[in-house]
Design brief:
Order of helices and strands: EHEEHEHEHEEHEHHHHHH
CATH class of the largest domain: Alpha Beta
Radius of gyration: 21 Å
Number of helices: 11
Distance between the termini: 31 Å
CATH architecture of the largest domain: 3-Layer(aba) Sandwich
Largest sheet: 8 strands, mixed
Oligomer: single chain
Number of domains: 2
């Protein structure tokens, strides 16, 4: 990747700037070889990286870049005129299919991925799928890019990216909703708001760390608590007997369906 120039179109948005920060911090690409397109010509939060090239001219960015990352809002993609026929194109736009990207840009070397703003903390999960026209070097670039953002996998079915868009893309999204419910419960029981907030934040931090390490899957952690037959087991048995799982599935289905129409 040392000799590749990397351009980001949409690099000032939440996701684009998060990926940019991950790449810069990991030194995946030297900052002198990174271009960012910005309508204002400004890039907030990166004043300590003077080597970055910021431009309002996407044509200049494309001309300078070997690899172009597309992370503009899906609705805006159709309004852009981008000739990317000779480039490796990596997209993290929700709902915009590989066929649509090729139609709009002329690119054949296309990698479509899903990431999240957690990339700024190198905590994103970024699965991706590639066209047959991509080379081993192209796929190695994508792997290095998304490893800088957290963890990654190459997958084989493009339709599965819509599932990840619903599940892992909206960080903290669904997880934050469960935290909100638990914080509201604590408030209803009379806990001070600042204490309830701190307790729930720490709970989810600790839970995430425990589930992120070791071989135990989420279902293993749940079963361990139930087998212990303590206070948590009593609550989990109630939840397992409720409709909460089915309702969560409906929410995820709604998010997947929206992903498949947003582009």
């Amino acid at each position: 990747m040392a000799d590749q120039t990397f351009g980001i179109i949409g690099g000032t948005g939440m996701l684009g700037s998060a990926i940019l920060r991950a790449v810069v911090q990991a030194q995946t690409v030297a900052e002198e070889r990174i271009w960012v397109a910005s309508r204002s010509g400004q890039l907030d939060g990166f004043s300590d990286h003077p080597g970055l090239s910021i431009t309002t001219d996407t044509t200049a960015l494309i001309a300078a870049s070997d690899v172009v990352l597309l992370c503009v809002p899906p609705a805006a993609m159709g309004t852009l005129s981008l000739d990317l026929r000779d480039k490796l194109v990596i997209s993290v736009m929700a709902g915009i299919t590989i066929n649509r990207i090729s139609e709009l840009t002329g690119a054949t070397r296309v990698i479509r991925a899903m990431s999240s703003p957690a990339a700024a903390e190198r905590l994103a999960y970024s699965p991706w799928v590639a066209t047959e026209a991509t080379s081993d070097a192209d796929r190695a670039f994508a792997t290095a890019l998304f490893e800088a953002c957290g963890s990654t996998d190459r997958i084989t079915q493009e339709a599965h990216l819509d599932v990840f868009t619903a599940m892992t893309g909206p960080v903290p999204g669904f997880v934050a909703y469960f935290a909100e419910v638990m914080a509201d419960y604590a408030l209803a029981k009379g806990l001070p708001p600042e204490v309830a907030d701190k307790a729930v934040r720490q709970l989810f931090l600790g839970s995430g760390q425990m589930m992120a390490t070791g071989d135990a899957r989420p279902t293993d952690h749940v079963q361990e608590m139930i087998d212990y037959a303590g206070t948590t087991a009593a609550g989990l048995e109630v939840l397992r007997g409720s409709d909460i799982g089915a309702e969560l599935e409906k929410g995820l289905d709604a998010a997947v369906a929206r992903c498949r129409t947003i582009g």
